[in-house]
Amino acid sequence: MSNIISLPPEGKAVFVGDTHGDVQASRSVVKQFGKKNYFIIFLGDYVDRGEKSRDNIDFLLAEKRSNSMIILLAGNHEMNMIEPVSPSDFWDTLSEIEAIEYSKIFYTFPLAVSGNGFVAVHAGLPDLSDLDCWDKITPGDENWARLLWMDFREKDGEYLGEFGGRMKFGRSYFFRVMNSIKKNVLIRSHDPLAPEKMFNNRCLTIFTSASYGRERKIAIVDLSREIKSTEDIVLVSF
Questions:
Q1: Burial state string for 44-74 with b = 16 or more CB within 10 A and e = fewer than 16
Q2: Which of 17, 25, 148, 165 has its CA 20 to 30 A from that of 39?
Q3: Which domains are assigned to the chain?
């Protein structure tokens, strides 16, 4: 299976940030947009933090089996058996056999979605020259870690250091990689401390879980238009 899924240049897509056990949010999005034949792209982190992590992921897996337009990207919390996460309350409730079975499913999740002018991931950008190279990323390698763990900060520079166990990268890195892969806008989730819009409206960070105490938001994209800025993306709160 490819690490990156290309969306067609027609139709619409809704992007859903971390849901972290918020099955109510997941159900609401699927109910509303599944009927409209939207692509529904969940950006990872379906488990941990929320009280209904297992309900949430089981619901999403069932819906994905019946609707090919639902795409579940990998998040760092789905990769606990490769790179441990904290909190890990979902994983702590599983038997060893259950953990292995869920992990087998999670390892099949793609890492990114590409569209007209944009790319969507869970967290960050791998340091690779073009999108074709993303299929060479393997679980546990450095670029895999950047896709699932990276934070961005609105500061000059490339690598800014590691704080709180997470890599921080700045403006220079962001623009260098985005220009290299010929994309205008990055859609992501992962980092609740990041501003919603960064880097001259070239980076959008959204969340769709009640577990952070933030307003739930989703992002709607018209796939027939080239996305040149975050201003071309419709944000909806619920």
A1: bbbbbbbebbbbbbebbeebbeeeebbbbbb
A2: 148
A3: 4-149+176-191+202-237 (3.60.21.10)
